[in-house]
Structures are given as C-alpha cells and as structure tokens.
Amino acid sequence: MRVLIAVTHLLGAGHLTRAAALARAFAVSGHEALLITGGMPAPMVRQDGLRVVQLPPLRAVGTDFSRPLGADGLPADALLFESRRALLVETLADFAPDAVLTELFPFGRRMLAAEFLALVEAARARRPRPLVLASVRDILVASAKPERIAEAQARVAKLYDAVLVHGDPALVPLDASWPLDAGSAQKIRYTGYVDEGTRISPAAERRGVLVAAGSGPAGLGLLLAAAGAARLQPALGWRILAGHGVPEAAFTEIGRGLPPGILTRARPDYRDLLAGAALSISQCGYNTATDLLATGTPSVLVPFEAGSETEQRLRAECFAARGLARVLPEAALTVESLLCAVNTQLGAPSPAPHGIDLGGAARSVAIVEGLRTDGLAARRAIARERPGSVALRAALDDAAGRGLRVPMWWRDDDAVAATPALDRLISLAEPHAAPILLAAIPARIEPSLGGRLASAPGLSVAVHGLAHHNHAPPGEKAAEFGAHRPLDALASDAAAGLRIARERLPDAALLPVFVPPWNRLDPALAEALPGLGYRGLSAVPGPEVGGLVRVDATLDPIDWRGTRSLRDPDAIMRDLAAGIARRPARPVGLLTHHRVHDAAIWAFVEELLSVLLTHPAAHPLDPRALFAEAAMDSGAAKSSFPMTDIVRTG
Predict the structure, then answer these.
(1) What pLDDT shows up at residue 607?
(2) Domains of the chain
(3) What is the pLDDT of residues 192-203, one digit of tens each?
(4) Distance between CA 550 and CA 527 in Å, rounded?
(5) How do the residues of the chain divide into helix, strand and coil, expressed in percent and rounded to 5?
C-alpha cells in the first residue's frame, strides 16, 4: 500500500511523534508511507527513513489554537493557509495513496478544517478511491458546543471509512471523553497504544528521580517546582530534562543553583533513563503515558490543565485508578506538595503488571490492510458486473474451451525517472507477474531511473526516440521521426537515442527496440533501423520491416483527442473481447502512459488486469522473449504463439 498521513502539531510534539511512529510501522511492514507535517520542526521526533513533506509551518501560543502563528511569529494569513492547502492536494495527487490518514481531524483541528477537508475531498474524488481514515489518540477534548460535536460526527459519517483509536478501552474507552453517536461508534477501531518500541536497556537497580515535561514550554511550572524540590532534597538523585522548546532564558532560570548535570535538555535515550529511574515525575501526555506503561516505572503525574484541556487529567486519573501513578493536580503544584507526593510514592508498593495493549503500531497496519482488502474485493465485485468485463470473460472462456492461450504483453511510454507514478505502475504489474517494456526518452533519462530498474526485475527498456520533440509542421499530426526531415537527420537522432540509452541505463535492462514517439515514423527510417543497431520495433500496427521483430501496441485506453482521460471502459473491453474472439492467438498489446494517468485510467488498468490476467486462458509475455528472436535467424527459435501474429522478417 501507499499510505499518506497528515498531521499538524501546534503545541507539543506528541501528535507528530505518534504519526511518525505509525509511518515507520507501515514502512517496516513493506508499505510506502508519506508523512505530511504542518507544525514546527521537532528535532527530537524520529523521522529517519521516512518520506516527509513539510507544509509552511504553524504553531500556537499557549492553548490558543484558534489564532495560529506562522514560522515568523506573525498571525497566519490567507496566503499561508492557501499555500498549505495547495501543497496538501498536490502531494496527494503525486503520491496517489491507497489510504489517507488525518491525525486528530475531524475530532479536532477545527481551525484547519478547510485544508483537511480539501485533502479528504480530493482523496474521495480519486478513482480508485483510497481509504479515508481518522487517526486519534485515546482521549479527546470535546467541545462545550453541541453543534461542533454534531459537525464532527457528520463528517465521520459522510467522509470517513473508519476511525483508528490508538488506545486500549480496558484503560479508557473513547466515549469517556467524546460522545459517540451510533454512526461513529460503528466506525471505531481500537488499535492499542502506539509504542515507539525503543529497546530498553535493563537496569541492575532503579535509582533516582527523573523529571520530564514534554518538548515545549507548557511544563515550565513543573520544571521549576522540580528544581526547587531538588535543591531541598538533593539526596534523592534528581535528573531534570527540559524540552528543546523551552526558551534559553527559562532554562537558565530553572537551573539556577543546581549542581552541574542535574538539568539538561531532553535526550534521545529518555526511555532508558526512565527504565532505570526509581520514580518518574511528568505530565501525562500520550507518549509519556506509553513510555510509563512500557517501562513500568512508578510515577507522580502532574497533568497539563491550562485553558480547557482535560485530556491529561483524565488519563492520569485512569492511571491512578489502576495503581500505576499518584496524581498531583496542576493547580495544587508547589515545591512542598511535589516533595510530599514524591516521598509518598517512593514508599508505595511497586505497580503490578498492567496488561494494557501496547501493540498499536503493528495493529494499525493490520487494520488498514484489512480495510483495503475488503474495499478491493468490493470494487472487483462491482467491476465483474460491468457488461464489458462480462463480454471479455466470455471471450476468454471460449478460447480456453478450444484449448487456446491468449497472449498479452504490456508497453508503457515516456519513462524518464523513478517517480511515484512509476512505482504505482510496478505495483499493479507485480501481483500478476506481468513484465513491462518501458519506452524511455533517452535525452531526458534521469539517474534515478537506472536505480529503480535495478530493484524491479520485471522491467525492461526500449528506446523512445531521442527527446520526444515534435518536428511536424503546424497543422500536421505530431511526430519526432516523421517524413518531415531528411533521412540522415532522422537516422542520426535514432542512433543517438540508442547510444544515450546505453550510457544511462543498465545493460541488463535495455533492449535494442525502437519505439517512435506518437507511434509515427518515416518508413525509410524503419528500413534503416537494423543498420543503426536496432533489432526490434514497436508502434501501432503497421507493415513489416526487414531485419526487425515488430510487436505493436493494440490497446490504448486514453482518449487522446478528447478528454485525455479514459475512453469508454465498456467499449474498450467489448472491442477487446471481439478481437480475441476473431484472433485469439494475436497478442494483446496494452499501451499505458504512467506519467499522465488520472484516477480513472489507473482504476481501469487495475480492472483490466484483474479480468484478463487472472483468467487461465491469458498468457503474459515477457518483452525480453518477444524481442530476443530479433537477434536470431528466422528459423533459430520457436515462439510460444504463431509467428504470423507478430510482424517478423529477416
């Protein structure tokens, strides 16, 4: 699958941390994940190995999420929002995902609704339509206004396939913080907590008090109180970690009078430190709670409660109810109250095993895989009922009943680089073991194409002219190698195309096969191709050419003269069925153009392959085998289908 995850964190980095962990989980499972982040860069959040798109960033001051600021500290204006929205939709189109996850929206990020809705609606308009999923933490903050809750519920019902709740209802069900109507409740999928899974180095003995308060300045009060407690009772062995978002002046104030080494910035080995601590003092954000569950460290929780925030207090109380922590309300926080809570908790029995599900990352992947499989099955069931599909299957059934095989081969034109569209083409072919002949434009080949060929053994490459430049006079059909230029110029360009392709592409992938752009070429040039080193030719059905194997494309689904989208799919399949009925041994030559496919064309190609290549009468052909005979004498090899159906002389 190709999975797009969109997240904007405004205060701390917890939302981004969880979204990045999900993206890594999809990547580890063999899927391709793209993370779109709309908050400020967060240096402590792991993004290694991920494909990331950064929107023009936003941030909030305190808990005022209704008036976000840009990276320059000024209020975000309409131009900034429009640039974010445009980049979201553009990224969706380029990446062509199978699933889209919006983090927190539509349950939160209401002030960013325009851009999230633009993304979701663009996703739903694609064909085939990707899954649209909401990704939310275990606890939400419900609006005090019923109409806003109703608005979110309506969006879930209308726009979303499912809601991934990254929590365990055994600790706290979603309806403890958010009212669920019947429609929303049916779409809930609990995943368990998304644990980063960082390996914990075992500690021989738990020692000291570890204090952390998130990545930003929201925990300043806790850090100041902890520093005061460390000055009063240093024998407890304090270590205080301040987030990288804490201003330098505040950091200096916190550390005033503390011995060196007690106060540091947040560290990537936080979980190891936590596993070795006798006691943790922290707020109770999602990722901190997951760390505590993973390490089993006794804790004092001072939940963040500024503004109307209730999330951390509810989570902390759920921890306390299970004997996993002691809660000190933020309003009651002082140096003295913190020390009292610390000493009490240090003297309490160690927490019992909690049994809370921490497998949310892998389970999220499994849930999305299952939803996509169900969706594909439903789409294929609909496609099987299309009249054209019925006719095509009937023609294949008839061929099979006569003991015949229907050969099929696949050519794709205009390749120049490794792109998401090329990846999608390959992903359609691989389940059917269908080799593809890429017609690459030599003068425009980028280094990435050669690298992609190395990891895709089902691809071979033909020479697609030279630069795909139209030399036809105004008013005539486009052609790079038409009879509009002297033969010497045509031959020179054709020879240059083969030379450049050999320089830029792996020898193992390249076939000396000429594919003229726009499928048009001067017959005199065709006769000259063997002398230039070519051994094969592929265009649209045309006359024989001495010295070449000619295998042409017969099925192009694009309406080039009209919409430039998909021609009538039923008509395409009915025509194909009629052709198979007349000449079942004639190769079906599918022609695609991955760089210009829209959603309708992608969907049709997938449907055609699912009908054609899952039938026992169909026989996919490897272009290497098709064109290999060009280098042999005419009697030196035998084909798997009658040679009268391939134009071949020599």
Answers:
(1) 87
(2) 2-190 (3.40.50.11930), 209-346 (3.40.50.2000), 387-648 (3.20.20.370)
(3) 999 976 667 666
(4) 12
(5) 45, 20, 40
